[in-house]
Amino acid sequence: MPAFSLPLLLEAFLLLTVLAGFLGLLLRRNLFLKLLAMDVMSTGVIGFFVLLAARRGLYTPILETLPDRTADAAYADPIPQAVILTAIVIGFSTQALMLVAISQLSRREPTLQVGAMEEISTE
Amino acid sequence: MTTPAIIWLVLPFLMAFTGALLPGIETTLALIVAIATVLAGLFGAMAAEPLSLQLVGPYGIALLMDRFVAPFLLLNGLVTAAVLLDRRSRPRAGTFVLVLLVLHGGVNSALVCQDLISLYVALEVVGLASFLLIVGPQSAKSLWIGLRYLLVGNTAMLLFLIGTAQVYRSSGSFRLIDLAGASSTAMALILVGLLTKAGLFVSGLWLPRTHAESPAEVSAMLSGVVVTAGACPLVRATTLVEPLAPLVLGIGLASACFGVGLALIETDAKRMLAWSTLSQMGLAVLVPAVAGFYALSHGLAKASLFLLSRHFPSRRLEIWTQNPLPLQVWFPLQLAALSIAGCPLLVGFLAKESLLKQLPGPSGLLVTSLAVGTAAVYARLWGWPLLGQRDQGSSDQGSSDQGSKAPGWRASGGVLLLSLALLLAVGLGPAGPSWEGFLLVAPGAASLKALAILAAGWLLHQLLQTVRPLLKMPNLERLDDLLGGLAVVGTALIVIMVR
User: Fold this and answer.
1) How many Å lie between the alpha carbon of A35 and the closest alpha carbon of chain B?
2) Which of B15, B155, B197, B392 pairs with B279 at a CA distance of 20 to 30 A?
3) What confidence category does residue B469 fall into, taking pLDDT thresholds of 50, 70 and 90?
4) Is A79 on the interface with B (CB under 8 A)?
C-alpha cells in the first residue's frame, strides 16, 4: 500500500507546512507576522530536504570507525543534509536582516500594517 | 586554467574583506576586480573551447565558462566599473563599495555556475547584497522597498529549493543538466525562482518600483546587471532542457509586450526606464544564441540612462521639455536611448537584428512591432532640448532640483565609460555565428527598416501624447499583488507543464 506509506504522509505534511506558510505570507496584514509565516515556509522546505536525505536510512552519515558492514548500513544521504545546512544559514541571515529592517520601520509605523507601508512608498 | 578561474571568482570577496580592513583603497581594489571580470569575459569570448570545472568531487560545484556567458561577464565588469567611476567623484560614505564588490562576485558566480545549489547560493548572495544597496539611504521608503524585494525574492527562492529537492530525488544530483529528467512540477518551481530573479512578466512586477526608488547608481547596477543573474541561468536551462524553450519564448514575448505597454503610459522617468527593463529582458531570453549580446547591449545603455537619471531636472516626463540639458548629459542620454531603440550603427541595432534573424515567422513580426513600441518609449527622451551656451545662465534659476545638477564632466566618468563601451561594442562582435553574414546586410535593408521603425515609434509617441493623460495605470505593485503573482505564475506553470 504505497499510497499510505509514512514517507509519503510526511511529505504531504511538509508540503502543507510550506503552503500554510505561503498563505500566511499572503493573508496576514502585519509585516512581522508575514515574516514569521515565511519562517514557517522555510521550515517546511528544510524538513523536505531532511526527509529526502532519510529515504535510504536514518543513521547519521558519519563513519566513526570503519565498520565491515558499511555497505548494508542504512545511512542517511549526506548530500541533501549538507545542502540544506547552507540554505538554513542563508535563510537565517536573511531573516535577521529583515527583522532589522522591520524594527527600523516600526519607528515610523509602530503598527507595522502593510497598508501603511504601501503609503510610505507611494508618497 | 583552473587556478586563475577560481582566483577570479574568489577575488571580489577577498577584495571586499581587504577593503574593509584597509579603508581608503577599496575603490581601487574594486576597479581591479571589475577589470578582472572584463578580462574573464574577453577570455570566454575568445577561448577556442569552453572551460568546464568540477570542484570538490562529483557532487561538488560545477562551473562553465564559454562564449554564451562571456557577454554577461563583460556587462558585469563594465557596469561595475562605471558605477565605481561615477561614485568616485562624489562624497564617499559607508560600505557602498564593499557591498558592491560582494554583489559583483555573487553575479559572477550565478553566471558561471552549472548546478542548482551553487545557483541558489549565488542568487541569495546577489539578493542580500542588492537589499543592502537599496536600503543605503536608510529612509523609511528605501527600507520598505528593500524589504519588499527581499520578501519576494526569498519566497521565490524557497520555491526554487523545493524544485531543487525534487530534481535531486529524480536524478541523484543537482547539476543544471539533470533538470531534463525532472518532473514538471520541479521544473515549474525552479522556473518561478529564476523568472522572479530575472524580473520577467508577472513575476517581475516587483521590479519597477524597486529600480525606480533606489539611488541612481544602485538602479544602474540592478537594471543593467542584477537581472541577468536570473536571466542567464534561465536561458542556459532552456538550451539544456528541450520542453522549456517554447515556454520561455512565450513568457519572454508576454513580458516584452507587458513592459512596453506599461512603459508607454508611465509618466515617471525612472519608472519608465524600469518598465522598459522588464520588456527588454523579455526580448533577451527569447533566443539563447543572442541572449548574451542582447543583455549586454541593453545593460550598457540602461545602466548609462540610470546613472544619468541623477541629472534629470525632474522625474515627471511631461515637464521635461521645459528644462534643457547640458551637452555632457544630453549626448550620452541620446546615445543610450537611440541604442536601445535600435538606431542603425549602434549596438542595440545589431542586437535587435541578430535577434530577428533567429526568430521565425509570427514571433519575429511581434518583435518588430514591439521594436516600434520601444522606439516610442525612448522617443520621449529625444525631444529633450539641448542647453546652448547662451542660455547656460538662465537655466540655473529655471530648474527646481538644484543639488543634483552641479557636477558636470567629472561626475560622468562612469557614463563616459558606458558610452564608450556602447560605441565600441559594435566592433566586438560576440554575437555568435550570425555575425559574419550580418555585417553584409547591415548597411542596406536592415538599416532602412530600423529607420522606418524609429519613425513609426516617433509617430506612435506623438499619437500617445494626446491620449496618455486619459490612460490610468493599474496598481499591481502592492506586496500582496507581488506574492499573489508568484502563486499565480507558479500554478500556471505547473498546469502548463503537466499538460
Assistant:
1) 8
2) B155
3) confident
4) yes
What are the extents of the domains in chain A? 2-60+70-122
- Which residue from A26, A102, A108 is facing B483, i.e. has the nearest CB? A26
ipTM: 0.93
| H or E, element range at B55 | strand B51-55
Q: Chain B: nearest CA to A105, how far in angstroms?
A: 6
pLDDT interval class at B427 (50, 70, 90): low
What global pTM score does this model have? Answer: 0.91
Closest in B158, B161, B484 to A26, CB measured: B484
On whether the CB atoms of residues B142 and B136 are closer than 8 A, the answer is yes
A74 shares contact with chain B (CB less than 8 Å) = no
Q: For residue B422, what are the domain limits?
A: 2-498
pLDDT-based confidence at residue A70 (cuts at 50, 70, 90): low
Q: What is the 3-state secondary structure (H, E, C) of B199-259?
A: CCHHHHCCHHHHHHHCCHHHHHHHHHHHHHHHHHHHHHHHHHCCCHHHHHHHHHHHHHHHH
Nearest-CA distance from B55 to chain A in Å?
A: 15
State which CATH number among 1.10.287.3510, 2.30.30.40, 2.60.40.420, 2.60.40.10 fits the domain covering A2-60+70-122: 1.10.287.3510
Domain count for chain B: 1
Q: Which of A15-19, A42-46, A105-109, B103-107 has the lowest mean pLDDT?
A: A105-109
Nearest to B140 among A45, A79, A108 (CB): A108
The answer to whether residues A48 and A11 touch, using CB atoms and an 8 Å cutoff, is: yes
Say what the pLDDT of residue B407 is. Answer: 42
